[in-house]
Each structure stands twice: as C-alpha cells, then as structure tokens.
Design a protein that fits this description.
three-stranded mixed beta sheet; 2 helices; alpha+beta; 74 residues
C-alpha cells in the first residue's frame, strides 16, 4: 500500500488509477494524515433474476403458526 500527497495524486492521477486497476491500494494523504484510499471498483455481478430459486425453497406447513409459549407476544 503506497501513500501519496494530494499534490502528487493530482499530478499523477491517471498513473495512480492504472495502479489501482492493477490491484494496488493507494492512500492519499494531506500532510501526514491519510484522508482517502484509491482502489479499483469491483465489477458488478450478474443482474438478479426473479424466480431463480423457484422450486428450491420449501416452507414448513406450520410456518405461520405461533410457536408454543409465544402466545403472549401476539
């Protein structure tokens, strides 16, 4: 993990982005204080598909019934 000043980050931004794309984490600091981290963006996963688990999930027949001893919490 490399740390660079804000001035250096502005001057070499495209090079720092390329390093982040390669998997490196770059810390941007103001003086000696770290203030930001430059990392690669995770690629989005595949879009959700409604009904993808149809037929694979089973609900118990008594799912909506109140368990014994919990009648006072209704």
């Amino acid at each position: 993990m490399d740390a660079v000043s804000i001035h250096e980050a502005k001057t070499h931004f495209s090079k720092l982005v390329a390093r982040a794309e390669a998997g490196e984490e770059i810390i941007v600091r103001r003086g000696a204080t770290p203030v930001a981290k430059l990392v690669a963006l995770d690629p989005p996963g595949r879009p959700r598909e409604p009904g993808a688990l149809a037929g694979q999930i089973v609900m118990a027949d008594d799912f909506d019934e109140t368990p014994e001893g919990f009648e006072d919490y209704l």
